Amino acid sequence: MVLVESLYGGQFHPDLQESVSEMVKLISETVNNGGNAFIPSFAVQRTQEILNDLRLAKDSGALSDDLKVWLDSPLAQRVTKIYTTALQHGLDSIFDFDNLIYVNKYKQSEGLAFKSGQVVIAGSGMADGGRIVEHLSKALENPKNTIIFVGFQAVGTMGRALTEGAKEVVIGSKNIKVKAKIVLLKGFSAHGDTNDYLAWVKRFTNPKLTKTFLVHAEIDRSTALKGVFEQEGINSCYIPSMQEEITL
User: Cα-flanking dihedrals φ and ψ of residue 143, to 5°?
Assistant: First the structure.
């Protein structure tokens, strides 16, 4: 028996560096046009990756040293400090650069709405809670702004609605028109794609493998991966239903 996630079943990720380059390009274009770039980001790992990418972009000249980047997530700040402490001596600056500002007070967070030409990183990664929601309540109606999603967006989250082209969302009691540019960069995903799943499962392919359970996905993605596996001769696939009990 094997269990394998199928979150991106039937799909293939773009190269990570392509997504990094696209993010840097979007930020540059947005701030040059007088807008702000907002990045809803997960506090653990993803935020630290983004900070390092921005540092490298500044070092290379792709982004200006003067560009202000606001890290508006108390949890992400604490996690970043843990990562920094754990690194070897001499590498403790990979998440730090000129004009990276940690937002410590809520009033400071609220004030970001009145600034332009900057980057704001805030949680949550799917825009279904946290400080990013307050930012989006103001940012979405400005066509100069860009919202850059750098992770999977689950069904029912505002991030999913925005990346699927919603023209209006409800935040609190307000209907917010979506005029900002919305971009989903899939290359940042920490989950595998179809090629990764296939390579992993083939390690276990032998006559003793009687069942391959496809889990952790929406049904269309699991079904797509099942089709790929069956084309490769892996015919023991099963997609369990929610709360289904299986006797092994």
Answer: -65, -10
Per-residue pLDDT reduced to its tens digit, 113-170: 889 999 999 999 999 999 999 999 999 999 999 999 999 999 999 999 999 999 999 9
Give Cβ neighbours of residue 13 (< 8 Å, ≥ 6 apart).
186, 187, 189, 193
Contact criterion met (CB below 8 Å) for 41 and 150: yes
Cis peptide before 124 (omega within 30 of 0): yes
Task: Please identify which residue in the block is written with the tokens 């004009």.
Answer: 99
- Has residue 235 got a pLDDT over 90? no
Q: How far apart are CA 174 and CA 46, in angstroms?
A: 30
Location of each CATH 3.40.50.10890 domain in the chain: 16-188
Overall fold of domain 16-188: Rossmann fold (3.40.50)
Look at residues 149, 144, 125, 142 and name the one whose alpha carbon lies nearest to residue 177. Answer: 142
The predicted model scores a pTM of: 0.89
pLDDT value at 218 more than 80: yes
DSSP of 111-163? HGGG--SEEEEES-TTSSSSHHHHHHHHHTT-TT-EEEE-S---TTSHHHHHH
